[in-house]
Design a protein that fits this description.
The chain is mainly α. Helices cover 52% and strands 6% of the residues. Helix 2 crosses helix 4 and helix 2 packs parallel to helix 5. The longest helix is centred in the first third of the chain and has 19 residues. It is globular, with a radius of gyration of 17 Å.
Length: 210
């Protein structure tokens, strides 16, 4: 894939997420997401930070969180959610959809993965379906599995993943798990909510580590 393709996919996914979020009701913004202790509103705030947060903000946030990266990320998201309404954040997501700027330390595919996964984090607890486009979804899965950041190598050891809605598979078994790209994305990033859409001999093993 080329940088232009990645940029086009990320741009389209951000606009698709903004369109999806337009339909949420007021009460749904306070519903807990798949991210522990984050509401849908806070997840959206986090997504808008991906091309706005600076190195200085990141370093100061890490210091305030005493070196805890996850706490720093959560603190920044909550601060932004307290400052902006969901409608304002959706507008920001649209306004910066074409931006190629990335958060400190992020790779070219991280903004795509971030937008795609967090869209599911919001949609699943609400009982809403958020489609995963095929080629971007495959690229995201390949990246997640190959990255140390997401912990997928250890989590998926001994399991072959096979998509039922795309011509894609990864891993060398001996066990297999089959399901839609959206559910494979969730379990590959450690989200047990994706288990419900999966089947195969590796399901019990995967369940035990999520």
């Amino acid at each position: 894939m080329t940088s232009d393709e990645i940029h086009a996919w990320t741009y389209a996914e951000r606009l698709a997420l903004a369109g999806f979020l337009d339909d949420l009701e007021d009460r749904e913004w306070t519903v807990p997401s798949l991210c522990p202790d984050w509401t849908a509103h806070e997840v959206l705030a986090h997504v808008t930070l991906s091309n706005r947060v600076t190195l200085k903000q990141t370093l100061l946030g890490v210091l305030r969180a005493r070196g805890d990266w996850n706490r720093m990320t959560a603190d920044l998201a909550r601060e932004r959610a307290a400052r902006y309404s969901p409608a304002e954040l959706i507008a920001q997501l649209r306004e910066s959809a074409a931006s190629t700027r990335r958060a400190p330390g992020a790779g070219p595919l991280d903004p795509l993965v971030d937008t795609m996964i967090h869209g599911q984090d919001i949609a699943r607890p609400l009982g809403r379906a958020k489609a995963v486009p095929t080629q971007p979804g495959i690229a995201a899965l390949d990246y997640i599995i190959g990255s140390r950041f997401y912990g997928a190598r250890q989590r998926l050891r001994g399991i072959r993943l096979t998509a039922v809605d795309a011509d894609w598979s990864a891993g060398d078994g001996p066990d297999e798990v089959r399901g839609p790209l959206s559910d494979l994305l969730l379990v590959s990033t450690g989200r047990a909510a994706g288990l419900a859409g999966l089947a195969g001999s590796g399901l019990a093993r995967l369940t035990s580590v999520l």
